[in-house]
Task: structure prediction
Amino acid sequence: MNAEPDRANTNGAVHNPNPARALVVDGIDVYLSGVQILSQVTFDVAVGEVFGIVGPNGAGKTTILNVIGGIVRPTAGAIRYGKVDLLKVPPHRMRDHGIGRSLQSTHYFRDLTVLQLLGLGQLPNSIPGALGFSGHRLSLLHRRPGQARHRSMEVLEQLGLGQYAERPLAELSTAVQKLVDISRAVVAGTELLLLDEPTSGVSGHERHTIADALGRLRELGRTIVLIDHDPGFVTGICDRLMAMNFGQVLHVGKPDEVMSNETVRKSYLGEGS
Result:
């Protein structure tokens, strides 16, 4: 694991000695339809860290990713990535600042090959560009096939996916589809990856493949914030964890420390006193 700077293990603003591209989330409140979904959520993520968010269903985990990615706007609080105020950045411009997102579902463009999907990740980052791809499919990629292919193959090889380059997504296992979706974000130059349930629907053996790929990305300097329900997966890959319940932070710290916390065990693992 990465060497860890001095940090508080509970709520509170945390200062990193190398803040150039650190993610700082400070005092986030979210209300949706009059219901408070998040309350005073505060944490930070160091450069090159794998940071996991855990908790039971309805804890507010995905909402946190949606707030960081600009999909949900908070009613209070601040989010900075390096010197960028993310609350001023629209969702389709997050990639311009090195932020990418994967989703739980990979059921999109399943007739495309892996290379074609990664080419999509390299298209101009604008809403018209995305709609243009949906309408014209591969015509935009044909304008720069060599450049797109070279960059796509580079990322696929880094993640051990080179053998799948010419395969349609529909033919691949769920685990490989998940990794291809992560590759789509990486190929766009993403420095901060927001991963929602990367092991959802993936068998135990294949989860090791995903963990290995995320380890490679960390070695390449990527910062990762992920949500996952598998305690073994998050404790094995994450440098730190944040446990949540009912929209509030319960504890932040090293994986073993968080998982052994009594309050976390009651809320997340369903253990009694």
User: Anything to note?
Assistant: DSSP finds nine helices and ten strands in the chain. The beta strands are 23-32, 35-45, 50-54, 76-81, 84-85, 99-102, 192-196, 223-227, 240-245, 248-253. The two ends are 32 Å apart (CA to CA).
